[in-house]
């Protein structure tokens, strides 16, 4: 990394004079990119020569210089082919980052060429339609609504020992954790080897080695340069030990890592996460390593999550900060904290489509891999002794000695989750529960009792047939039937997940407060997700499954095979044909799925996808059992 580079341009420098002075003194910054986030979480990257930016800097700062079209972003039925102009309005209130190309060294400055990335809002026909603006609106709505109720009901502030006139502002704090898989290109490791290593916890928190260690340390150092304040980088549960080649180089890498960094306000947290993903991927690539942020890149092994932390505090005029979720007496939470988690859980069915919007993300959410399946929380066994239940959807993180640390950890997001929309829907849902608690003058004792209700008990806010709190291991201490009954049946496909937006219109209303989400935005998001799901199934999943099925070949020799080996292979081959091969009289599962999608029969496609995933799991099991029984194998 070159010296004397500038990495971050803070908000107080977002003016003509400071920017021109900065760019003149850093000629290695050759380009400017205006970064908008569409409804699918994709970020735009436009290389504008810095000379053009400097010549027209006032227009850029006023948001009048840059436009794109609907083909560049995912905004279906908003930016259409016959009405495609999208304006990019510069955001002056978030940090700007300089993205360096370390493989392109400027001959004049002998420094890597940099691109100044400026976040923006996307406007169509004068209306903001992007993920960043949705989050901005959600945060503004949360703050103003909470301040309004504090003004109308000042008694709600008494437990915190403050008055309305003491308040300077409401502060929304968020953070994410990034898990990912890293490997040497083209290397493959048997799933059973990975699964065994996971069960034995051979990789969890162990020492990184070789190029993995180098890339991880370089990533953390770069993050410090940008001011992200990394807190740790370590191995996660998945992976196997690397090996040395004949030259003494460390290769055959296949392991899972996690990087954590400090919280920030909601918008900055989402911007940071997006930039860090690219920083990490590029840093590992420069070290000859592939990085994948897929939620479930390897079936049968732990997937990658991106746990998202949600907190709310109030900043007082004297500079002091008070956590609004933290208990003011010997309790788990304040009334506001109880209301927040109740709102998130009650409305989570309509939050989930924005958190888990790909087939890959829902494959991760399966029992047995420390990934949440049930809509349920854990508070701990007692207020005095905090605990961390890793089997629930949203858990309470707290330290009785550090009240400012009190927050909720949403465990469902993954690295491809649109963090802007996940935060937006989470905070709006939490606001719904907070309003219930405060407007009805609910005490902490009443809210704790309601949150701890049993399925079948009637309460004022939470649904009668559901339970919402479990301190047990929800995978070990409840059967599948009990989980479905108490906590609701988890969606298995993207289609099933999106159905919640129709099934729970009253919950969707919580997202529409102050028009943060509109019917038009929700419909556009839904169309984009549906198109991505159907394209992913037909063009990626089926193709990958086909390659896997073709690799399942007959391995036994006829003169040495037992009847059991022949019988096993016949069952495998029959299943291969059922999944993949058409005949004059029968259509394969692959063909049935494709035809259902072409016919726009998404319910049938969803059901067939569930069957396909089940059949592939069975096929892998049968083939593994078949191989294990062979003494002599023909390769």
Can you describe this structure in just a few lines?
41% of the residues lie in helices and 18% in strands. It has 20 helices and 20 strands. Helix 6 packs antiparallel against helix 7.
How would you characterize the overall build of this protein?
This protein has helices at residues 16-25, 50-55, 57-62, 131-152, 191-199, 210-226, 266-286, 335-346, 348-355, 359-364, 419-439, 444-451, 480-487, 494-498, 500-503, 505-511, 519-551, 563-580, 589-598, 602-628, and strands at 8-9, 29-35, 48-49, 67-69, 85-90, 96-105, 112-124, 127-128, 167-183, 230-240, 243-244, 250-251, 254-261, 264-265, 290-292, 308-316, 321-323, 377-378, 394-397, 407-410. The protein has 635 residues and is of the alpha+beta class. Strands 9, 10, 13, 14, 15, 16, 17, 18, 19 and 20 form a ten-stranded mixed sheet that branches. Strands 1, 2, 3, 4, 5, 6, 7 and 8 form an eight-stranded mixed sheet that branches. A two-stranded antiparallel sheet has the order 11-12. The protein is globular and about 85 Å long. The mean pLDDT is 90.
């Amino acid at each position: 990394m070159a010296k004397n580079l500038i990495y971050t341009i803070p908000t107080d420098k977002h003016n003509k004079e400071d920017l021109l002075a900065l760019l003149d003194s850093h000629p290695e910054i050759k380009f400017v990119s205006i970064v908008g986030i569409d409804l699918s979480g994709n970020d735009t990257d436009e290389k504008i020569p810095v000379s053009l930016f400097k010549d027209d800097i006032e227009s850029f700062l006023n948001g009048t210089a840059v436009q794109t079209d609907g083909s560049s972003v995912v905004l279906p039925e908003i930016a259409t082919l016959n009405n495609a102009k999208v304006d990019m309005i510069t955001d002056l209130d978030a940090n700007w980052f300089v993205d360096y190309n370390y493989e392109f060294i400027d001959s004049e400055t002998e420094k890597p060429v940099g691109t100044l990335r400026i976040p923006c809002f996307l406007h169509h026909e004068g209306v903001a339609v992007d993920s960043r603006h949705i989050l901005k609106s959600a945060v503004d709505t949360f703050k103003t609504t909470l301040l309004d109720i504090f003004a109308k009901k000042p008694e709600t502030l008494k437990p915190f020992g403050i008055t309305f006139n003491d308040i300077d502002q409401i502060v929304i704090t968020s953070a994410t954790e990034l898990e990912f898989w890293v490997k040497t290109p083209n290397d493959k490791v048997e799933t059973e080897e990975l699964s065994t290593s996971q069960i034995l916890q051979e990789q969890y928190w162990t020492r990184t080695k070789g190029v993995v260690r180098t890339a991880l340390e370089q990533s953390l150092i770069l993050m410090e340069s940008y001011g992200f304040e990394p807190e740790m980088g370590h191995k996660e549960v998945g992976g196997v030990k690397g090996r040395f080649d004949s030259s003494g180089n460390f290769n055959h890498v296949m392991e899972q890592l996690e990087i954590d960094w400090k919280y920030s306000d909601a918008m900055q947290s989402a911007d940071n996460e997006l930039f860090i993903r690219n920083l990490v991927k590029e840093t590992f690539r420069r070290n000859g390593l592939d990085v994948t942020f897929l939620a479930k890149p390897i079936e049968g092994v732990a997937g990658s999550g991106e746990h998202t932390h949600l907190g709310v505090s109030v900043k007082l005029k004297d500079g002091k900060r008070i956590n609004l979720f933290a208990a003011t007496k010997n309790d788990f939470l304040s009334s506001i904290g109880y209301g927040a988690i109740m709102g998130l859980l009650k409305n989570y069915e309509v939050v989930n489509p924005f958190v888990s919007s790909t087939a890959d993300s829902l494959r991760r959410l399966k029992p047995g891999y420390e990934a949440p399946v049930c809509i349920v929380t854990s508070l701990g066994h007692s207020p005095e002794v905090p605990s961390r239940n890793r089997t629930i959807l949203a858990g309470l993180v707290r330290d009785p000695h550090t009240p400012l640390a009190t927050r909720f950890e949403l465990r469902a997001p993954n690295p491809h989750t649109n963090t802007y929309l996940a935060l937006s829907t989470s905070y709006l849902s939490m606001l719904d529960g907070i309003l219930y608690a405060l407007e009805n003058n609910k005490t902490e004792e009443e809210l704790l009792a309601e949150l701890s209700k049993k399925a079948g008990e009637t309460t004022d806010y939470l649904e009668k047939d559901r339970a919402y709190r479990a301190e047990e291991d929800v995978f070990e201490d409840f059967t599948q039937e009990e989980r479905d009954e108490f906590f609701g049946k988890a969606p298995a496909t993207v289609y099933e997940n999106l159905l919640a937006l129709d099934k729970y219109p009253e919950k969707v209303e919580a997202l529409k407060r102050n028009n943060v989400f509109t019917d038009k935005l929700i419909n556009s998001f839904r169309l984009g997700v549906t198109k991505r799901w159907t394209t992913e199934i037909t063009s990626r999943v089926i193709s990958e499954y086909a390659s896997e099925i073709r690799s399942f070949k007959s391995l036994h020799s006829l003169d040495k095979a037992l009847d059991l080996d022949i019988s096993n292979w016949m069952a495998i081959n029959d299943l291969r044909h059922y999944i993949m091969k058409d005949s004059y009289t029968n259509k394969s599962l692959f063909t049935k799925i494709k035809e259902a999608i072409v016919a726009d029969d998404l319910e049938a496609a969803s059901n067939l996808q569930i069957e396909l995933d089940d059949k592939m799991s069975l096929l892998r099991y049968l083939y593994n059992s078949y191989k294990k029984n062979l003494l002599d194998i023909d390769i």
